[in-house]
């Protein structure tokens, strides 16, 4: 967290997201070119519909974890991470920053994790790597597990819709909803 906070102070979160997600897109396209594979996006109507439905499911589960879930092992650490890290980092973003960061995260991470890694390593391995990529030190194991489950759901969505459009939309809309909740929620719940 110290290193992340230091970087955020030096650069805007928006710039970091554009650079980081741009790097993921570059890696995904380079890998795809190297392996001579194409990205398949699937049908638009199906992708949009199922993507929005999955985003709603993920957002409801996330809200449940933050607000209503009993304090089972892992839940308090997710709530603490939310209050101690996510609120300070994402709490002052503008609507435009939320929209852009969400869009680039949906595109960059889905091209890499579902578009490249899932096709190369399988659903389970890509989901585990997705969870690990979202961990940042002590207290984030439960969050990494939750993100791994989300990655699995996004991977299943890619398989079910035969393309990347649905998981890209689900990821971007979920991130926008989560960041918006962080932006406008000022409850300091940790229990």
Please provide a brief summary of the model.
The chain has 191 residues and is mainly α.
Sequence of secondary-structure elements = HHHHHHHH
N-C termini distance: 21 Å
The low-pLDDT segments are none
Give the CA-based shape.
globular
Instruction: Give the proportion of residues in helices.
Output: over 70%
Task: Tell me the radius of gyration.
Answer: 16 Å
User: What's the average pLDDT?
Assistant: 91
User: Which sheet architecture does the biggest sheet show?
Assistant: none
Verbal overview:
With 191 residues, the chain is mostly helical. Helix content is 79%, strand content 0%. It contains 8 helices and no strands. The longest helix is centred in the middle third of the chain and has 27 residues. It is globular, with a radius of gyration of 16 Å.
Topology:
Layout: H1 2-10, H2 13-35, H3 44-67, H4 75-90, H5 95-121, H6 123-133, H7 141-161, H8 165-184
Helix pairs in contact: 2-5, 3-7, 3-8, 5-6, 5-7, 5-8, 6-7, 7-8
What characteristics describe this protein?
191 residues, 8 helices, mainly alpha, single chain, 79% helix
